[in-house]
Amino acid sequence: MAKLLKEAGKVKQVLSANTETFAQIESVFQDLDFRTKITREQLEEMFAEFEERYMLPIKSGLEMAKIEVDKLDKILLMGAGTRVPKIQEMLTKFFDGKQLSRNLNTDEAVALGAIYQAALESKVFIIKRRFDLFDIQPSKPLNITDEAQKEEKMEVDETILPKQMSDNEIAEAKKLLTEFEKREKAKVERDVALNSLESTVFDYASKLDENEEEFIKYGTEEELKDIGKRVAELREWLEDVPSETDAKQFKDRKRELTKPVKKIQKRKQQKEERPQHMKTLEAALDEADKQFLVFRNMTEVFIGGELETYSKQIADLRNFFQSAKKEVEKLPDNKDASFSTDDLKTKSSLLTRETKFLFNKVLTALRVKEEAERAAKKAAEEAEAKLKAEEEAKAVAAGEDEGEKIEAEISPEGEEAKIKEGGEEGDLKKEDGIKLEEKKMENDEASKINGTDMKMDVDDNKKEGQKEVDTKEDKKEEL
Q1: Bias regions of kind Basic and acidic residues — which residues (predicted)?
Q2: Which strand (E) or helix (H) includes residue 83?
């Protein structure tokens, strides 16, 4: 019975932090071992009928204090039993969803309350904060109320201090409190480490007993035997753990236990992730082959044997890929491959990076070539436009010269202008100039003759007009 009670206590503690565990008792009856799996849900079903009983003391305390739930400021948990998730759930429901305060050590909360009560009844200590205490046992009510102290209070960090303490005594008290906090912290860390080790041991034992796929499929026979041996040794050691065992020792034992298990878990992870990394490497190789066909037609872009190095890199990786593919096809689940998924990832990454580097180099060369061709085309267009403009200017100039020549042939002034221009330019001969001068003189003579004739005609017209006037005058006189 003692073994059952001890194991039940362990199961309750483990299920407070985990959802399932195994209860195991050696030689429970006539050298028969007892072992069973139990979940948190099963444990909660076992004490569901006691839920109303758990709340009775709380209801009685509130009724005695005449306090409603909505008037409460904080809900402080006391006692190790309040660590059970179901208990916390019931308390939260009872107090209308108020948050439960976990700033006190539940194992020591009752003792701390007793210290407060003793301090209240003592005349030696002063309580800095005001509070009321109500005993929930009707047979012995306390109803102690802390009244405001009239004497001067010491402003120090501690909640409770003796009166008239010297500076040395205060320093010593602080030192003791600091050491106490360190011990408490170490105790909490120890409990957490112990709970973690126990949970791990139970978990591995369960997987071995139930032939779970993670272990059986991916672990070798030697590895499984090693894990089983470690689990058995730790379970025996945990039956009577020395009190001086600290958190570090629990962590070290857990680390040693998980080493072979992590190896199996990694093997499983490699098996699951390997196909995707193989596909990535194959895609990188296919892309590299395609780009190489383009690169080899642009040898002027590459220098220093870059294409040869790239070609060798592709060939080596292709051989590695084919070899790895054959190895994986025949590889058992409980054996490690000669390469890891990290190797595949690194190789595909390096090849992809080299392909991008060469591709960018080709792209840059094409861009430079395109810019040079565009600049040459622009220069040719500008030269052609300039030549065309010069030809048009010459054509305009030639047209103006021809017009001046025609005008000179029509008018004497034009001839004279042409002679002058010819004299300046030296294009006309002297003989042509003499002929033009003679022609001008003839024109002048003709103009004079024409002028004389025109004058004679004007005089004759005047005479005729005078005759008509005289005739009209004669006729007028006759009338």
Answers
A1: 373-394, 415-447, 454-479
A2: none
Three-state DSSP at 165 gives: coil
pLDDT, tens digit (0-9, with 9 covering 90-100), for 255-307: 999 999 999 999 999 999 999 999 999 999 999 999 999 888 888 888 878 89
Phi, psi (5° rounding) for residue 76? -95, 130
Cα–Cα distance for residue pair 144/120, rounded to 1 Å: 8
149 backbone dihedrals φ, ψ, rounded to 5°: -75, 135
Q: Which CATH number does 169-269 carry?
A: 1.20.1270.10
Which of 95-99, 136-140, 325-329, 470-474 holds the top average pLDDT?
325-329
- Domains of the chain, residue spans: 1-46, 52-132, 169-269, 287-389
pLDDT score, position 376: 92
Residue count (the chain): 479
Rg (CA), the chain: 59
Alpha-carbon distance values, 470 to 459, 460, 467 (Å): 17, 15, 5
Owner of token pair 């090693």: 226
pTM equals 0.49
Sign (positive or negative) of CA dihedral 366, 369, 375, 376: negative
Check whether domain 1-46 has CATH 3.90.640.10, yes or no: yes
Q: At what angle do helices 167-209 and 221-239 cross, to 10 degrees?
A: 140
Mean of all residue pLDDT scores within the chain:
76
CA separation, residue 299 to residues 285, 303, 304, 369 (Å) = 21, 8, 11, 15
Q: Is the pLDDT of residue 137 over 60?
A: no
The proportion of the chain whose per-residue pLDDT surpasses 90, expressed as a percent, equals: 24
Nearest CA among 323, 204, 190, 340 for reference residue 261: 204
Do 318 and 282 meet the contact criterion of CB atoms below 8 Å apart? no
CB-CB contact of 24 with 33 (8 Å)? yes
Alpha carbon distance 59, 356 (integer Å): 74
Q: What is the pLDDT of residue 457?
A: 47
Structure tokens at 305: 């044997």
| Count of other CB atoms within 10 angstroms of residue 341 | 20
Where does the pLDDT of residue 146 fall: very low under 50, low under 70, confident under 90, or very high at 90 and above? Answer: very low
Q: Is 48 exposed, middle or buried (0-12, 13-18, 19+ CB in 10 A)?
A: exposed
52-132 CATH fold? Nucleotidyltransferase; domain 5 (3.30.420)
Q: What gap in Å lies between CA 130 and CA 114, rounded to an integer?
A: 16
Q: Measured between alpha carbons, how far is 178 from 183 in angstroms, rounded to an integer? A: 9
- Helices 247-295 and 167-209 pack at an angle, to 10 degrees, of 60
